[in-house]
Amino acid sequence: MNAADPVRFGALKQRALLVGLAALALSLVGWFLDPQQFYQSWLVGFLYWIAFPLGAFGFVCLHNMTGGAWGFVIRRILESAAGTTPLMALLFLPVVLGLHDLYEWADEAHVAADALLQHKAPFLNVPFFLTRAAIYFAIWILFTQLIVRWSGQQDEGNEPRPNLTRRIQLLSGAGLPIYAMTVSFATIDWGMTLEPHWFSTIYGMLFVVGQGLTTLAFSIILLSKLSEREPLAGVVKTGHFHDLGNLSLAFVMLWAYMSFSQYLIIWSGNLPEEISWYLNRSAGGWEFFAPVLIAFHFALSFLLLLARRRKQAPSALMRIAVWILVLRFVDIFWLIAPAFSPGEFQLHWMDITAPLAIGGLWLAFFFHRLGSWPLLPANDPRIDEALKAHEVHA
Amino acid sequence: MTEPQGVLKPDPVIEPGHDYGSITEKIASIVDTGRQPKFWWVGFGIGFALMQLFLVSAVWLLWEGVGVWGINNPVGWGFAIINLVWWIGIGHAGTLISAILLLLRQDWRTSINRFAEAMTLFAVACAGMFPLLHMGRPWFFYWLIPYPNTFGMWPQFRSPLVWDVFAISTYATASALFWFIGLIPDLATLRDRATNRTGKFVYGLLSMGWRGSAVHWYRYEVAYLLLAGLATPLVVSVHTVVSFDFAIGIIPGWHATIFPPYFVAGAIYAGFAMVLTLAIPIRWMYGLHDFITARHLRNMAKVMLATGLIVAYGYSMEAFMAWYSGATYETAMIEHRLFGSFAHIFWALIAVNVVIPQVLWFPQVRRSTAALFCVAMVVNVGMWLERYLIVVTSLSKDFLPSSWGEYAATRWDWATYIGTIGLFLTLMFLFLRVLPLISIFEMRTLVPGGAGKKGGDDE
Question: Can you tell me the distance from the alpha carbon of A147 to that of A176, in angstroms, rounded to the nearest whole number?
Fold first, then answer.
């Protein structure tokens, strides 16, 4: 088989689509029964899955700026994931439909009775919220589609094309700060304003780091499978997994660092307008989430990722990555869902089906994109040296 | 076809034409020929003179009391804490370069890590002066340390100021150890090259019996890597604890959850600015263009640009949330900063810390040493202004208008501050005189075909 030929993922695509459509059908039934619950579950699922394309967008930019062998072997995974942003815009529509059920600031009667919400009204109003969402998606779609297109053009022919590479780098250089800014404000809009009195300046960064970790875990899972066969079989070395494992370790630590910093500062200040967020999450069953996250999302993941032996074994690293993806969902659920039932833990069946629906559809589209081009980028001036360097290390 | 620079092939980290001998000769001869260029004497002279200013102002402070400074009630922190944070921040680049870039296998760190680590140590030394002097009675500093004693003193562990004692002393210890261990093989080189008895004795003592055997190298590599792993969290922890000094309280403008990461980014930003401030003259002074290449300067400029953007992100989040929160005191604080009695400092800060460094986006600027030096100086000033703004504005106007007050630094504040710059310069120039400013043995590994070479540019 020629290395340049794309690998098709027909079976995977079909299975993902099937699961997605089935879960979507179930969720739609749920929508008729309990629209409010549907919107809430959908928002949780949406904020979980949007990390996959957006984190990939951030990482592609980072990789294009810095090079590094770890990036070349997962670049097509990242680019294909980033390329799915149009689908995410489509999947955002239920949030738009459910705006009045989700956000109390969208309810005029509620705002009229709340002086603080009146103060925030220039920012928290429906038209401006929708305009901002449109801007975020427009930026994400523009950047990701251009990166994907130019990266595909780079593959054509047999010659390096420095001007094109340079253009990709410039776009990525601009993309990185824009990514950080748009994701921060998007998560503030979609997540933080669910509890419109509360605020935390680190909130956006917390999501940026979470997205990074999600993307790394997802890439590790795919790479461990793809590395078993052509065209990546001969190319991907234990050193690449080691690097990705180290990056995951760093992101696990960053996530813990930011989550803990936010907690420590708010806890020590103990101001009514800030501590409410934690109080909503420390009663009625929600109080078990934080210890679980500390013990598993941080401590256990950290310890597992410390050992070099595990980072160099694709199958072991893949299991850790699956584990991290599960805990990412627990984290997102803990960040978002208590806003709907403060101080009272609730798990609805749609909390499972809605994320499954979004995930199934997203994965199907992702595999479709991944199958449409070669798994290894060609003609990048830096790729040969980057891959060669790893042979020495491995 | 015109090729955009550096896309096809990155610039080398060492200019071609060097071998083991020429590297050793070039770097070690700075130390053991005994002659220094006249710029060394000028620099050392300025530093030494300013250090006298520090000694005079410290003596005057101890004689008269901390009242000689501009601190007052409510602004009890003033210059002392501004300068502590400024100096501590500067130190971070050294640890980042030596530990994190080592773990990330960035070979361009090799020719800048040694003097960046020295810079860290000296910056921490300068930083330490301020809380000590700020106590007014520095001889009681050991009261901060928890130890069993007969007078019932025990530090308040809920106070981040106590965490600071641990964070900074750990940082100083780890940085010194890391630096010294990295020096051992080079100290042995200097010992072997020494022609006089003093040199042989002192370098001999310090090189701890290094003979360069395979076992020595093996243990050395293991120890160095472990220390790098241990030093890595310190890059983050120290300035995080410093940010907690502010954020753990509820003073408007201090109590912000973004503070930890934003302080760490600011520290790295300031640190790289200082490394560039030092590297550019040193490179020129000793003609080290072959070792500290355009690529080094460019990479440092990029790190500065990236961390500067994170700092700008911090500013914008702070300002946005102050409005968004709708909290009376937060809103008043940000208005005070933007339009109040310290507004000129705020807008100067935005200009020097956010706007001007954006020129680093342009490759022409990153290629020009003069431009880079100017940007680095601007950032040095900018990061100082940032700390001034944080410390002074929040303290001068908190909750009750009856307890508001203005702040103005006295000439002794300035003398102490400028004096520590003298202390820093003195230590730095002495270091250049007696120790190899670039790691000799690590540079040797960069020679094409050398021991550590991974797929070279010139093969």
Answer: 12
